[in-house]
Design goal:
Layout (H helix, E strand, L loop, with lengths): L5 H19 L3 E5 L4 H14 L4 E5 L6 H13 L2 E4 L3 H11 L4 H23 L1 E4 L4 H6 L20 H11 L3 H5 L12 H5 L3 H13 L4 H8 L3 H13 L13
Parallel strand pairs: 1-2, 1-4, 2-3
Helix pairs in contact: 1-2, 1-7, 2-3, 2-7, 4-5, 10-11, 11-12
Length: 253
């Protein structure tokens, strides 16, 4: 993996957030706080950049589980204002209107419901929505289009998941948040690495070589001592999710 000066990265990130808030003339930011490391890191960065009074955390659970406690811990440890909005009734209304949803579709509705609530609060309060997606998720399409992938600015979008872990440690994010298994919280017991079929540490090593260095699949496999099938699997994730990284396109005339 690339070598980053993480203290410099934190300074760059906080400067970015501060500059964007000043450029747009907003009164602050809204962050969806899930109880995971990415949203915790963004909340910590935002509070560092703007001061805690200009950061609102929105906790939007569908399930009552440890994630809710962890999200509260993040907000309370920072001293930022936060609201808890249970989205179960909203999501269930969508499911009823559609006539039933499978697990993945329900998860996408959950993510898009959270996006709507984030923007409703941001509009009402003259604030920006800060996204929490990282580069690992962005490149593999591991996000909901127009859901958690939607925001005004995404501070972590050029940082791999393993790099976010290091930044979180320096920021003082609670240890239990850093050590928990990453999960999008789209269904009970779901974890990112189980769903992706690969650990973040290996995924990041492959993505960095493939996307940033432009190495070929065979070369990546040799350098990492893994089968080429795994590299091809990651390449396929990147290719098939290209549409998620772009605004809607149509033919050119």
């Amino acid at each position: 993996m690339r070598e980053l000066d993480y203290n410099f990265a934190i300074e760059r990130l906080t400067t970015f957030i501060r500059e964007k808030a000043e450029e747009t003339g907003v009164d602050g930011v809204v962050v969806g706080v899930s109880g995971g490391i990415d949203s915790a890191t963004v909340a910590y960065l935002a509070a560092k950049a703007l001061g805690k009074r200009r950061v609102l955390g929105l906790i939007m659970p569908y399930y009552e589980n440890r994630d809710l406690d962890d999200a509260r811990l993040v907000c309370e440890s920072l001293g930022i204002d936060y609201k808890v909005i249970n989205i179960r009734s909203i999501v269930d209304e969508f499911e009823s209107a559609v006539g039933g949803l499978d697990t993945r579709s329900r998860g996408n509705v959950m993510a898009r419901t959270r996006m709507v609530l984030l923007y409703a609060h941001a509009n009402a309060m003259n604030r920006l929505v800060l996204g929490t997606s990282n580069r690992s998720e962005f490149l593999t399409g591991y996000f909901t289009k127009w859901g958690d992938g939607a925001s005004d600015y995404a501070p972590l979008i050029n940082l791999y998941k393993t790099e976010v872990w290091e930044i979180a440690k320096l920021l003082g994010v609670p240890e239990r948040i850093i050590e928990k298994k990453p999960s999008a919280g789209l269904w009970e017991g779901q974890t990112d690495e189980d769903e992706l079929g690969i650990s973040y540490r290996l995924l990041d090593e492959i993505l960095w070589r493939m996307v940033d260095l432009g190495m070929g699949n065979a070369e990546i496999a040799r350098e990492l001592g893994i089968g080429i099938e795994m590299v091809e699997y990651v390449e396929n994730l990147v290719k098939k999710s290209e549409h998620k990284r772009r605004l809607p396109v149509g033919p050119v005339f």
